[in-house]
Amino acid sequence: MRMLVALVLLTLGGLSQAAIKTQEIPYRSTDGTQLIGYYAYDDALQGPRPGIVVVHEWWGLNDYAKRRARDLAALGYSALAIDMYGQGKHTEHPADAMAFMQAALKDSAAASARFNAGLELLRQQPQTDPQKLAAIGYCFGGKIVLDAARQGLPLAGVVSFHGALATATPATPGSVKAKILVEHGAQDSMVTADNVTTFKAEMDKAGADYRFVSLEGAKHGFSNPDADRLSHGEHGGPDIGYNKAADERSWADMQAFFKKLFG
Asked: Which residues pair with 215 in a beta bridge?
């Protein structure tokens, strides 16, 4: 009997996993950069559904960003983990990650073009409802989605997980169209208290619809199970750390946020 139950559970688990389809899709930004997106959706669902862009941490388009696209697909969304560095490159070396990030942010217009190219690719997928779009981002990616909101891009909402809050081009009154959810680690040493104060003042002045959640005991990178390993890697690492409670709370907050946005 135990063997039969185990076989049934394995079969059901296999069927569940088989419903999530993934594929790598090459695309190009208007700045000429060749990019590689990772697309995920549940093919057991019928018809178009809300589309969510996933923007990676400073490490690049790694397995963690791809996993989050699959997680969103399992929730019933059309999800695309986009590539902000080109050729899908990623690293576990902090110095390389810093160099990749700085290069991507050096030209703000190019960074915007890369995000827009990914958003357009998601919009084009047959599983995506082009009228229902949102974005989530982690660390570097958090900054990218917040900047997209600041620019008034056609997004229903954006969610930043332990994202950088500072910007060279603050929102202006009326410019922010998307609703915003910020999930921030209260012990994040990489995002200062001044950064938090300035961000909130910016959003208030712009009249943005935003919610700022401060998660007690959480450091930068709190949502990534690899954060502890990466913080003590052979190359040395930043002050980051995984926090299971903060990870689960922030993901639940995101689900409630999207349910309110999209029903």
From this structure: 185
Structure tokens at 141: 């990616």
Please provide the CATH number assigned to the domain covering 25-262.
Answer: 3.40.50.1820
Separation in Å, CA 198 to CA 105, 166, 167, 195, 216: 20, 8, 10, 5, 20
* Domain ranges for the chain: 25-262
Residue 43 is which amino acid?
D
- Per-residue pLDDT of 41-72, as tens digits, reads 999 999 999 999 999 999 999 999 999 999 99
Q: Give residue 231's pLDDT.
A: 86
pTM greater than 0.85 (yes/no) = yes
Interval 116-152: pLDDT, tens: 999 999 999 999 999 999 999 999 999 999 999 999 9
| Cβ partners under 8 Å of residue 123, min gap 6 | 51, 130, 133
Q: Residue count of the chain, please give it.
A: 263
Cα–Cα distance for residue pair 77/165, rounded to 1 Å: 26
Supply the DSSP string of 185-207, one letter for each residue.
Answer: ETT-TTS-HHHHHHHHHHHHHHT
Sheet holding 49-55, edge to edge: 20-28, 34-42, 78-82, 49-55, 128-138, 157-161, 179-185, 210-215
